[in-house]
Amino acid sequence: MEAASKARSTPNGRGRRATRASGDDRERAILETAERLLEERSLSEISVDDLAKGAGISRPTFYFYFPSKDAVVLTIVDRLVADAAGSREEALGTLAQGDPRAGLRRALEDLYGAFRSRRAVALAAAELRPTNSEARDLWSQVMEGWVSDATAVIEAERARGAAPPGQPARDLAIALVQMNERVQYATFAGESPSLEDERVLDVLVDIWLRAIYGTPEPG
Amino acid sequence: MEAASKARSTPNGRGRRATRASGDDRERAILETAERLLEERSLSEISVDDLAKGAGISRPTFYFYFPSKDAVVLTIVDRLVADAAGSREEALGTLAQGDPRAGLRRALEDLYGAFRSRRAVALAAAELRPTNSEARDLWSQVMEGWVSDATAVIEAERARGAAPPGQPARDLAIALVQMNERVQYATFAGESPSLEDERVLDVLVDIWLRAIYGTPEPG
DNA sequence: GGACTGTATCAACACCGTGTCGATTAAGTC
DNA sequence: GACTTAATCGACACGGTGTTGATACAGTCC
Questions:
Q1: Which of A21, A96, A216, B89 is the least buried, fewest Cβ under 10 Å from its Cβ?
Q2: Contact check, Cβ <8 Å, A214/B212
């Protein structure tokens, strides 16, 4: 959905107010500085001055390019999300027909990979959510996309008799997608009880399969 | 684990420096003000001055009772966690023998109920985690408790032949416990894709049962 | 009942991060 | 060479945090 990242003619509201001169370099410098610093410390430990210094400008000049520190992060997250959306489209095709286990694994793999390759940004986005409504809205859209995809898959599998009935497909999808988010976040952040990087996919795929195709009754 | 809440003789580091006079009222007033304000707005929108005013004291006096705003929230969360731990102990007994579905539901119900009844505090704790290491450590301990309980249950069920083998019990437990946390948080916060309050337990119990007792292979 | 001790209180201060204003410079047009 | 418009920054105002030092206000203790 709405990328507006390449559309340099249309100012995207988040970035700079309508320009085309050499200041593009500075804008990029700010974004790169932000990504670099986020590898070292958390968002709350980075000030506007740090970003300005890193880009070789003064703090007031920073505000010529971005309205706030949050806006910088949102711009970066926007792009990450757009990239991840690409993987998703692609993976959904694989999932549609053929071996469900392999298809589901491909889909979750792509998603996991997209965020793991830019851990720092993913963690910053999470840190922003509680205090920034724009970040919340953006993430809501992202989650909604995955949930509706997963819902469609579950319903299709039930329709063709491959999966048994159970909880409403959308409810199941919400819980599973939120599980993925949380498990991945914990692993990225290196939380104390968390899955090892190499185990994440095995465990998640297994739970998804059992939740979708398994029967609920214990022996 | 370590409550140190009743132990008024031992100053608990978080609270006030060794006292016993009428200032106890003020300490309680601050805690109550914090809980009250958290019902209205998020932690980041509450200042030390708000807490002081609410308790009828000046901002410097606040620092006589607590070293920071975070310390107030941590004190409250400490108590919530202690309460929740009580429920857990109790629920584990029920789970041990008899109908697994009913037992599991009881356990998850108690946990869900403990946090739902003080939503605002739970949300504040989550907001604190990214910026406060003490909050992270506290929550780590809480998660670890649930994870090791769940691990034990899964291993016991596998040992007695009620549950089939599968992913390592602890890995499964981590993912499931983190799912619960995330799903419950989303519901409390009223996030956009989130489960309705009345659906949460049905969905979570179902996924737990399928993940523990189900077989992974699709038809 | 006056000297002593520890609790409780707050005005004033120093500090830091944010965001804005106004003045200034450096390029392009035409 | 007068006119815009991009780009820059010093100086300011603001709001929040945490500390210091002075002070009032109990209660002992002799």
A1: A21
A2: no
Partner-chain residue, chosen from B157, B174, B194, that has the shortest CB–CB distance to A193 = B174
Asked whether B120 and B35 are in contact (CB, 8 A), the reply is yes
| Per-residue CA distances from A197 to A57, A123, A201, A202, B181 (Å) | 38, 15, 8, 10, 20
Count Cβ atoms below 10 Å from residue A3 Cβ, excluding itself.
12
pLDDT of B85 reads 85
> Is residue A202 classed exposed, middle or buried when 0-12, 13-18 and 19+ CB atoms within 10 A define those classes?
middle
* pLDDT tens, residue by residue, B14-56: 655 444 446 688 999 999 999 999 999 999 999 999 999 999 9
- Taking Cα atoms as reference points, which of A213, A70, A207 lies closest to residue A137? A70
What pTM, to 2 d.p., does this model score? 0.91
Mutate: best of A70, A99, A101, A179, partner B, most B CBs <10 A = A179
Residue A162 has its nearest CB partner, among B143, B178, B218, at: B218
